[in-house]
Amino acid sequence: MTVAEIKKNLEGKMDQSIAAFKNNLTKIRTGRANPALLDTIQVDYYGSMMPLSQVANVALIDSRTISVTPWEKAMAAKVEKAIRESDLGLNPASMGDLIRVPMPPMSEERRKEMTKLVKAEGENAKIAIRNLRRDANEGVKKLVKDKEASEDDQKRSEAEVQKITDKHIQLIDQLVVEKEKDIMAV
């Protein structure tokens, strides 16, 4: 493996970490409705657990209400039960074959808890980025030790790896700030 391959590999892995972090942020509830909030809910579909999105259509009615339309009428009660029993604190209401999921307004205390959760997720993402930086630097050191790269290459690559790391950490900080604004907006 060359220094260039290590950096390319590092950038790809860091981008994956950012994507995973963004995915985790969509699961954190803000005051507004978001269909991605229901992605983690599993529904008992004839004996096997299936993601909600595979047994029903999930859409927004307005900024505070999600609509869930099961593809089979027989599944409506099970879908409603799965939403109610999830740890999201939602109270769905059935209207024929349409299930309305109103988003309860969040208290100031709950909003602060959510921002703490966002900061914790951000810190975990930064730790993952820093671990990738360490792995890349160790890979370059191994190349130098095996005489496949010079010490000048090592110094140069460490500086470039640090720039890549700084860019990704700055992106995480930016995403955390945006999500906090989103949560604290009443």
Automatic annotation (TrEMBL):
Any single Pfam family the record assigns to this protein = RRF
Q: Give GO cellular component annotations, separated by semicolons.
A: cytosol
Q: Where is the Ribosome recycling factor domain?
A: 21-184
**UniProt-annotated location(s):** Cytoplasm
Gene3D superfamilies in alphabetical order: 3.30.1360.40, Ribosome-recycling factor
- Family classification: Belongs to the RRF family.
Q: What is this protein called?
A: Ribosome-recycling factor
Q: Lineage in the entry?
A: Bacteria, Pseudomonadati, Pseudomonadota, Betaproteobacteria, Burkholderiales
